[in-house]
Write a structure and sequence with these properties.
116 residues, mainly beta, 7-stranded mixed β-sheet, 4-stranded antiparallel β-sheet, 11 strands, 54% strand, globular
Length: 116
């Protein structure tokens, strides 16, 4: 059963924008933190941004001022607006949702490619 469905990845030129979205299934209850991570080829997966149920956000230094995370808790959606994209933002982006129970769910990943 697919728990998280991501969309919005693609190919964009440097300086462009993309918006990623992630929808959590109704079977995931009491969602606490929602976030985005990314993994570039040959590198470890890293945090991009997270947002708590209360709306507190956390960003990687490399994306501060360029990316904005938001959520619609009622619809179990989380978005990542990415502006001023750079070639170094190229990676597979993963959505992660953490429930109050402590269980974490990962999406299948969506490719973001930024050409120079």
């Amino acid at each position: 059963q697919v728990q998280l469905v991501e969309s919005g990845g693609g190919l964009v030129q440097a300086g462009g924008s993309l918006r990623l979205s992630c929808a959590a299934s109704r079977s995931i209850f009491s969602i606490n933190v929602m976030g985005w991570y990314r993994q570039a080829p040959g590198k470890q997966r890293e945090l991009v941004a997270t947002i708590t149920r209360g709306g507190s956000t956390n960003y990687a230094d490399s994306v501060k001022g360029r990316f904005t995370i938001s959520r619609d808790s009622a619809k179990k959606l989380v978005h990542l607006q990415m502006n001023s994209l750079k070639p170094e933002d190229t990676a597979v982006y993963y959505c992660k949702v953490s429930a109050e129970s402590g269980i974490g769910y990962w999406g299948q990943g969506t490719q973001v490619t930024v050409s120079s």
